[in-house]
Request: fold
Amino acid sequence: MTKENPYSVLFEPVQIGPVTARNRFFQVPHCNGMGHVRPQAEAAMRGMKAEGGWAVVCNQETEIHPTSDLSPFAENRLWDARDIPALRLMTEAVHDKGSLAAIELVHNGNHAQNLFSRAPILAPSDMSIDAPFPKQARAMDKTDIRNFRRWHRDAAVRARDAGFDIVYVYAGHNMTLAQHFMLPHMNDRTDEYGGSLENRVRLTRELLEETREVVGDTCAVAFRFAVDEMLGGDGMQAAEEGRAVVEMLAELPDLWDVNVADWANDSITSRFQPQDGYQNDYISFVKSMTSKPVVGVGRLTSPDMMVSMVRKGVVDFIGAARPSIADPFLPQKVEQGRIDEIRECIGCNICVMADSVNAPIRCTQNPTMGEEWRRGWHPEIIAPKGNEDDALVIGAGPAGLECAMQLAKRGYQVTLAESSTELGGRVLSESRLTGLGAWGRVADHRTHDLRQRGNVQIFTQSRMGAEEVLELGIANVFVATGSKWRADGIGRSTIRKHPKVDVNAAIFTPDDIMAGRMPSKGPVTIYDDDHAYIAGVLAEKLAVEGYDVTFITPESLVSSFTVLTLEQHRIQTRLLELGVTIICNHTILGVTPDYVQIACGFTGRVQEIAGGAAVLVTERKRETALYDALRDKGLRTLELIGDAAGPALIADAVFAGHMAARNFERSKTDVENEWFRREMPSLQMENL
Reply:
């Protein structure tokens, strides 16, 4: 008798209207910075999800008309039939692996800026656009509404013709016209599309009915709906209007895809919501109100929680965006009982960041994400070793761990040397800070993998000099010795005029704080010229531990980079709630034992912040002494990787380690000439 797979319920087929999903794993729509600009790359990425076992693979926001132009962001586009071939690339890639392809049709209303199309911006009522840009949207008249419904019907037909199995009506994330009509603060109409909730939902009802009518029995119709705006009484709440909308439309769609708004709540970082399945409390009522299948999300990575959600009747499908990015093969690993091999999402939102700057998607845990087509990388497959037999990796931070793991997978004998007592480097240090516990998954996944392999030797407390390296006799060496934070205050805002730092001043760096070297109790000034997450985390830590903290930054916001990861507002709010004094738009001039001197970035006016210690968060210095000592020593391979080569995000360090392992034994000429494939615009004249 064979033991039943405890996760077998996740692999039951589920009917969605006229189509059937082969299991319960559902990759919900998510952006990726490729879209209509890089359709071959997007198709390959989505196809990889299907290969990994996701039964339904959705694309992303797909503009249906020039009045919903999201440029410069590279989402999908279905303005007319000329967009069908690019989208068909995706449906064919997904179908080839046995999965269903879904499309998220969207008109973004006042969330669109129409910078490319220069079309008028449409909204339920006259209002400013949802961006700091001096433009306004106009209230849609009845003709506009009829036109919008026609555009949506036409796009649904084109989606069917492109081969999609599921067509979405989208009312979520505070980004879509259908949702805007529902929200009373955006809809002050007095006609049949305004006033009562029934009237405000009228447009969505029409979109659902008409989409079903035009796609017939060939496609399922899904409805993506934010049941709660997470604003309490100031917005739609799941317990009130959210529930009422579900009740009104219960049987109209073939599938309910439910979440919370806005995007910063739906994709909240693990720093502010460490719990997997955090949306369950908001969405759990939906299944009791409809006979149609329900998909929900919540950064779901635990198969046990997935099973529990299905058995408790919370959802029919396990929805995922970020977990499917971190591990496209998550479903296959669950089915095959390889739970310990899952690359768990850490909730850092570096994937969101890439889309926000119109760059191809990337992931801290999965360095192959976005590289499936342009570099030919597969998350589970890597070329076998070449002529060399062994390699030495020095430094077990994110770059070193990834490089060692991939070299071992290729079949080399790998020696990994780490100077400290533990593996993980900066991710281990940062994961011990408040809210960053999930960062430890980067080290945990790779350390576990390496310890299972017979061709890997791991040595901790092994600080190596050039002589020790050469004595080992290993001719292929990868140096991942990392970087250290500067203590002199030099950074992007002080490169022209270096601050004067008194040698007697109490100066600390992030490395000091993470190592437990804390200032004496009293006032502490943090100067942030890095603008990512680390200074804000340190300020929170010090404030919680009773220090009187002043946070100074040359930027207009605290941790300004984190706008791109959807957490800046939460970071600044938390610091203010903790009593941290925030001084923006000021540059550091000097630090003495008695004060920190700063200057206004606009007027140059100088002021002094009295007393205490200073934590300087500016730049990092690369640790290259070992690499420099090994140059010209006759090694066949000597490569500097990760933060030692260029300090950046953890995701960049992991990527660098991965690329070094992939490129090992490739010729320098090939590496230089074949960075990646580019998608080039065709210059062939169109038939007008």
Observations:
- The first helix runs from residue 39 to 51.
- The mean pLDDT is 96.
